[in-house]
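Hey, I was hoping to borrow your eyes for a little while. I'm sending you its amino acid sequence along with the backbone structure tokens. Take your time with it, there's no hurry, and the full record follows here.
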Amino acid sequence: MKDARTLRVRPPAVAGTFYPAAPEELHGALRAAFNAAVRPDREMPAPKALVVPHAGYIYSGAVAASAYLSLAAARDRVQRIVLLGPSHRVPTSGMAVTSADAFATPLGLVAVDAAARQLALTQLCVSVDDEAHAYEHSLEVQLPFLQVMIDHFEVLPLAVGRCATADVATVLDTVWGGPETVIVVSSDLSHYHRYADAVVLDRRTAAAIVARRPHEIGDRDACAAAGIRGLLSAGRADGLRVEQLDLRNSGDTAGDRERVVGYGAFALV
């Protein structure tokens, strides 16, 4: 990383809203999430890729923790996180990287992998767009989980907008790397249905993810549908299986059951 005096840092945008802004409170929220996570009933190999939710920690933190627990055995091996999330606030064509050198969270700085960024930029569908990253929560909320689960890592943040499945898959194949690289797709599932309806919809989407049927995942089934479809379609993902680690919604965690948001945790191993 550059000298701290010359770093271009993307500051936290949702600390204090989606998760606590004070470091000690944030550590407490993370502990609570891991305590409420679903632990696998059998030993699993460390994942190559994860799908995790990105709502406020009181809503989806436990489901996200169910995914991040699977990184424990690889905490000293993983060096790069390729992080994809939807661009919620800024209309984006293709995929956007940031020009920042690091992302800040209450737990410290996370360096942006400049070499991986340059590699991604060799693809026509990838461009630099700091506006797409400035207030985007889907990427930011994953960083504190990664900071407590991985010893030392850099991140390639990718905000995904209107983007063909094939383009996402090509970018992922380009930055796939080896055992040092883990891909994380940040996505919630169904939005604002009644509880019973959401359970049906999310079970259907989860089945499509586990069966690796990206064509069955519609844009309204998950807010990062393009990222999930691209991950499942990536040529270098061939031979990996998908494990469902957790499937809940806000009606199961901290919200009412009239208008719920679905959350799933999945691992490609």
Q: What stands out?
A: The first helix runs from residue 23 to 35. The CA atoms of residues 59 and 115 lie 35 Å apart. The first strand starts at residue 9 and ends at 10. The chain has ten helices and twelve strands.
